[in-house]
Amino acid sequence: MRKTKYDVMPEIKRRFANRAIREQTVPWETLEALAEAASLAPSCFNEQPWRFLIATDERKEKLLATLTPQNQEWAGKAPALVLTAAKKTFTQGGKNNRWYMSDAGCAAGFFILEAERRGLVAHPMAGFDRAAAQEAFQLDADLEIVHVMAVGYPGDPSLLSERNQARNHPNTRKPLEDILL
Ligand SMILES: Cc1cc2nc3c(=O)[nH]c(=O)nc-3n(C[C@H](O)[C@H](O)[C@H](O)COP(=O)(O)O)c2cc1C
Q1: Which CATH number does the domain housing residue 104 bear?
Q2: Is residue 32 part of a domain?
Q3: Residue 124 C-alpha to ligand 1 middle, in angstroms?
Q4: Which tens digit of pLDDT belongs to each residue from 65-124?
Q5: I need a surface site. Which of 5, 81, 85, 117 has the fewest CB within 10 A?
Q6: What pTM was computed for the model?
């Protein structure tokens, strides 16, 4: 549990980018529940530009193949990989939505925290081949891939490579003074 100066939600304090994930199936309803939590995020004009491709089994293997070898090494154990995408234009009027990434990021935050509340890990990754993921899933041209999350139950850290064991802990944060303008 991280230490904070002020009182903060326990899920926020507990969460970290855990790479130790157990090879155990997560029920589909649980994965959908995480997407539902994400769908409750705020968005500009209530556009809800986020989209989630929940990949298990064959689709997971297809998505896993697009990850960097470093990410494949630990994320391959996760029973689900979730590709987050975001719609770049407003549905009403078709203008560019300047806030699509921000809204999708906020939704992913809700997803991650609901996972934490349920005793699951949801670890976002930028280390994947975007073009290969697009090729594999043929997403609509108006969607941009944001990231891929490894989702599963926390596993035994001693099964990670030495390098990953050494970095499998909550990272430090800038002091509050550095982020307050
Ligand atoms: C958009 C994004 C991309 C990330 N990409 C990766 C990644 O490719 N591989 C990885 O192991 N961790 C990845 N991370 C996890 C970060 O390294 C981690 O969140 C950060 O170091 C802070 O650590 P903490 O989440 O444990 O506090 C990513 C996180 C975010 C939000």
Answers
A1: 3.40.109.10
A2: yes
A3: 6
A4: 999 999 999 999 999 999 999 999 999 999 999 999 999 999 999 999 999 999 999 999
A5: 5
A6: 0.98
